[in-house]
Amino acid sequence: MVAELLRLRLRLLVGGVRRSTGALVAAVVAMLLVVALLGVALAAALLLSRMDAIFVQRIVPVVGATLLVLAFGIPVVTAPPELIEVRALRGYHLPRVPVALVLLIATLLGPAIAFVALALLPFLVWNTPEAVTLTAWCAPLLVLQALLLLRLGVSTGAVLVRHPRIRRIAVLLVVLVLVATLLLVGVLALPRLLGLLPAEWVPPLYPLLDLIGRLRLEAAVNAIAASPVGAAWAAPGLAEDGRDPGVALLLAIVLAAVLLGLWILVVLRGFTPTVRTRAARKRGVPGWFRAVPAGATGAVAARSISYWSRDPRYGVAFALVPLVPAIAVVGMWLGGIPFSIGAFIPLPLVLLLVAWGSLHNDVAMDSTAVWQHVTAQTPGVADRLGRAVPVAAIGLVLLAVGVPLSVWMQGSLASWPALLGLCLALLAGGIGVSSAASAILPYPVAHPGERAFRQPEMFDSGGFGAQALSLVATLLVAAPALAFAVLWLIQPGEPWNWAALAAGAGAGAVALALGLRVGARAFDEGTPELLAAAMRH
Predict the structure, then answer these.
(1) Are residues 173 and 90 in the same domain?
(2) Are residues 344 and 220 in the same domain?
(3) Tens-digit pLDDT profile for residues 241-281
(4) Is residue 280 part of a domain?
(5) Single pTM value for the model
(6) 144-182: b or e for each residue (b if 16 or more CB lie within 10 Å)?
């Protein structure tokens, strides 16, 4: 079996360049490029053998670790085709673990043979017998690690071909790793290179050398040398320096064992029959509908997000939101309110406007969707949850950015529980109360597509009553958290901040669950009234 698979690998490799003249030329150019890179690496190794031991112990782990990372990253980015597909061997009843090992060995029949030469270059770098002996132990480990990373990179690249967004992120990461390594090696080698320059050229470069000295690159180099991908490269340097390389060797062996286990799992997965495959979603699905989970809730959420992004009424409303904290800060400054207290106000005020102001009448605002949800027999809970998704997403982003910023402005790290509790109560409470109020008490608003400040005529006070009632209910949900937050501002040493967090999270969760349930039931039971209101408003 081993001989047949290796022979098959060799035949496929030779057959790959027989297709056309262009393929043959590309193969020859690639081979010459690999030979040139190996020549550069050989010259660099001979040059390093003449350098001081400290410099060599810094450079070798950085370059070696980068080679291992690129052995995984380049196949992920380029996604080269498999010469021997594991799934093609399923029908021959071959033992699976030996197949995984043979495929790993067969990888050497190709460009990957260059890793053997790279793993042997440290023999030219280290000068002491202890380091050379340890290099003989590390070289097979390095070749094994490189082959495993290469195989796993090819398998990962084959999967990411179907996910172009993730693949673009992988390309960016590979480029960042390469650029960071080149910069690090250049900065480490710069003081040695200056010794080759004329003496009069060096003084103008003293500020640059001073900046490099302040960067404290030793910490980054030590971290790379102590990492799993740098341990085998750094072990001979530890032996040459008189330190124990046992931990580095153990780390390199553990990395090789983990990678081997992952490769065997990949091969075993290739032998698994695909009895049931997940159906691919249609490529024609537009916009946000492709990004959300399939189902009624996801469809409503996607439609709401798309509608919000195009409706000028929502655009104007959210454009005014950034003005709120600015006006609040200026008003507090003019009123003489201490900054430690004033830092608490802008973020909760913004969340109140986002959670309550944009959702408490969403059935009337997005009235064009009511008849669609009714004819599609959309459950009320799906309608309520889907419409709340844009508000929740915006609110969570505001929380992630606003809470650390407000705490920094307030000046006390202990203030974050009180602020977070108050914000959670306003966000979750506003969504819950608004989800119920918009289904129970819709009132006329500007029609879709009209100017944001144009309001229809109202012959009663129902609209003002619905606004006031939902706003008061939202404030009542946040009242316990607000009370505890005020107590903490008065007595900072007391545990009122954690009480505010507990009260805000608890009251917000209860209001959210209850509001969604009440709103869903009102939507299901009051469908005719909602449809009539949507047509009338």
Answers:
(1) yes
(2) no
(3) 778 888 888 998 999 999 998 988 888 877 766 555 454 45
(4) no
(5) 0.49
(6) bbbbbbbbbbbbbbbebeeeeeebeebeeebeeeeeebe
Reported as half-sphere exposure (CB side, CA atoms, 13 A), residue 292 has a value of 21
Residue 278 lies in a domain: no
Count of domains in the chain? 2
Same-domain status, 184 and 256: yes
Q: Which distant-in-sequence residues (6+ apart) come within 8 Å of 291 by Cβ?
A: 302
Residues found in the chain: 537
User: What's the DSSP call for residue 201?
Assistant: G
Q: Is residue 406 part of a domain?
A: yes
Query: Could you tell me if 218 and 359 lie in one domain?
Result: no
Q: Are residues 104 and 144 in the same domain?
A: yes
Whether 429 and 508 have beta carbons less than 8 Å apart is answered as yes
| 476 in a structural domain | yes
pLDDT tens digit string along 484-495? 888 888 877 668
In this structure, the dihedral spanned by the alpha carbons of residues 211, 217, 220 and 226, taken in order and rounded to 10 degrees, is 180
Q: Which domain holds residue 19?
A: 2-271
CA nearest to 448, candidates 392, 356, 369, 371: 369
Report whether 60 contacts 138 (CB < 8 A): no
Closest by Cα among 299, 271, 273 to 287: 299
DSSP labels, 263-303: HHHHHHHHHS--SS-PPPPPTT--THHHHSPSSHHHHHHHH
Q: Answer yes or no: do 220 and 326 share one domain.
A: no
